[in-house]
Amino acid sequence: MNDGAITLALGGGAAKGLAHIGVLKGLEEDGFEVAAIAGTSMGSIIGAMAAQGLTAIEMEGLFRAIDWVRLGRIMVTSVSGAAFHDMLRESFGGILIEDLEIAYAAVCADLDTGEMVVLDSGDLAEAVCASSSVPGILPSRHLEGRRLVDGAVVEPVPVTAATAMGEGVVLAVNVVRPPTRREQGGAIMTTMPILVELPSIFRRVEDWLRRQRTNEVDGEISARVSRWESVFRSFHIMQHRLATCSRTEVPMIEPRVGRFGWFDYHRVDEIIAAGYEAYREWADESE
Questions:
Q1: What's residue 214's pLDDT?
Q2: Distances in Å between the alpha carbon of 96 and those of 125, 144, 227?
Q3: Catalytic pick from 30, 41, 123, 218?
Q4: Backbone phi, then psi, for 175, in 5-degree steps?
């Protein structure tokens, strides 16, 4: 399949979406040319980084270096999840989608009409914010007269948008499959530590973190995380059913990440390794 360019369709999944990085690592190792990326929710965030030219190794180093405890406190104590959008604007601000190295589209849902909205031009930060606005957790984004929320509401894995981009063969990555027995009880390999020069996006996040105040009330934070976990779990059950019902002939990689929680960002090594392992299995079967 690596004879031509491919378009990636990267689905949502919160921390589970870090598995997309493992898939990207495998694609890079095997010499695939990624010509376009359509992303939903966490897939839109990882996709935006890749479309800027960040390698999988750079993204892996970035997510390892983030202070997840401090970031988590900021996120769960912010009003209406505003801190998350602030961080995304800090990270991707001032960048236009049409200026990216790789063609890119963020998939959203129109909260009023139920239509799928594909953002493939304009402000990158706003597109990523809209695509990542999980209903009930993060506020909708108002763009061009529309109220936009997480694209997973209409298509958990953005195959339709990826196909419409017309850049070679489409390869989809779905990270919301329920856990198997192997995932519930088995160990997943971890990667060896790597040293990389962190990209400028990390410095933007670090600068933003230094300007924030955190709430140190652990009981309150635990309660909020528990409520968020419940919303995310319900939302992703719906996503998986939707993805299963709309399954097409497009090749799909499904990393075994069911054993991880929606907020297990600190388990970045394991989740990326699960994505890489799933890619390798798919690549072997595709030969």
A1: 58
A2: 8, 16, 35
A3: 41
A4: -110, 15
Catalytic status, residue 41: yes
CA-CA distance, 160 to 138, in Å (whole number)? 25
Q: If you write DSSP's letter for every residue of the chain in order, what string do you get?
A: -TTSEEEEEEPP-GGGGGHHHHHHHHHHHTT-EEEEEEE-THHHHHHHHHHTT--HHHHHHHHHHS-HHHHHHHHHHSGGGHHHHHHHHHHHTT-BGGGSSSEEEEEEEETTT--EEEE-SSBHHHHHHHHT--TTTS--EEETTEEEEEGGGT-SS-HHHHHHT-SSEEEEE---PPP-HHHHHS----PPP------HHHHHHHHHHHT------HHHHHHHHHHHHHHHHHHHHHHHHHHHHT--SS-EE----TTS-TT-GGGHHHHHHHHHHHHHHHHHHH-
Q: Is 67 designated active site?
A: no
Query: CB under 8 Å to 279, separation ≥6 — which residues?
Result: 22, 23, 25, 26, 27, 253
Residue numbers of the chain with a pLDDT score lower than 50: 184-196, 217, 219-221, 223, 225
Chain centroid offset of residue 22 CA? 12
pLDDT of residue 188: 42
Q: Tell me the whole-structure pTM to 2 decimals.
A: 0.81
Residue type, 97: I
* C-alpha dist (Å) from residue 63 to 14, 45, 169, 220: 13, 12, 29, 25
Catalytic: which of 44, 132, 133, 150? 150
Q: Which amino acid is at 33?
A: E
In whole angstroms, give the CA distance from residue 46 to residue 18.
8
**pLDDT at residue number 213:** 61
Output the pLDDT for position 186: 45
Length of the chain: 287
